[in-house]
Amino acid sequence: MQAPYAKMQSALDLQDLETILALHRGRTLAGAAERLKVDTSTVFRAIKRVEKEVGELLFERGRQGYTATELGRELAGHAERIETQLEEAREAAFNQAAQPSGTLRITLTDTLLHSVLLPVLARFTAAYPQIALELVTTNVLANLSQREADIAIRVTSSPPEHLVGIRLGTMRSAIYAGKDYLATQPAGRHYGEMDWVALDDSLPDHPSQRWRRAAFPKLAPRHKAGNLLAVAGAVVNNLGVAIAPLAVLREHPQVVMLDGPLPELDIGLWLLAHPDTRYLGRMKAMFDFLRANIDLPA
Question: The HTH lysR-type domain covers which part of the protein (predicted)?
Fold first, then answer.
């Protein structure tokens, strides 16, 4: 192993590390080229040249694109640390600690975006006019190590150990129905006998699904939806009864809470980041802002 590392000491430069990191994150030549603002042939030639000089493969090509080898991952890790240090140096050089700037990419679910984050973001953008936001909605926890996002906001009981973060509060849930829907039901009818709206089969292990199956094992939901925001919308529009977060339906004039909040469904709301980037100026600004401004209903 000594010969390849000896070669790297003289052959590997910052541009090479940047290319390795871009391909590790992008997974394809096109993805890496887009990150580097070059064409795919330039990325291909650069990787092949470095591999030849090092004497080892850095990437294996398969159906899912380019996967870094152990050495490729190690070099990409060095590149990420250098990238973070450069960002910190730029902030120090231009005194951006006092006025954070740049793009902040946040990943979260549709439900959290509309019920928790958007209601407070205007105050953040007014306070930090040089920060631009990219809001990415998905149920998948983005790979923060590969800079698919800077910050993740997630509901979880056990945040990943490789990330750092703060707990913003507790997301609570209850059973709701629309007022007009309830007006069509016979007097005294229990909500367990009404039409239910539930998450679809793409989320079979969601806590609301488990609770409903345990409480009403014979109940088959009449309607299904792909996320909690859609489930709550169905309740508002009188399709039936459902479990929904208090943060979504709090004080909604067209719905009634039939039962709850349900303590079995309490779950933490977490703000998460990679430890290498947590203390960049724009990251710290968002962490401090959300810690002070998120107010979840009890």
Answer: 12-69
Say what the pLDDT of residue 1 is.
Answer: 44
List pLDDT tens digits, range 115-142.
999 999 999 999 999 899 999 887 665 5
Q: What is the pLDDT of residues 6-40, one digit of tens each?
A: 444 556 778 888 888 888 888 888 888 888 888 88
Rounded to whole angstroms, the Cα distance separating 274 from 80 reads: 11
Cβ atoms within 10 Å of 30's Cβ, excluding its own: 13
Q: What is the pTM of this model?
A: 0.66
Q: What is the DSSP string of 8-68?
A: HHHH--HHHHHHHHHHHHH-SHHHHHHHHTS-HHHHHHHHHHHHHHHTS-SEEEETTEEEE
Domains of the chain with CATH codes: 2-93 (1.10.10.10), 102-171+267-293 (3.40.190.10), 173-265 (3.40.190.10)
Strand runs labelled E in the chain: 59-62, 65-68, 102-108, 131-137, 151-155, 164-171, 173-178, 197-199, 223-225, 241-245, 255-259, 267-273
Nearest-angstrom CA–CA distance, 262 and 268: 14
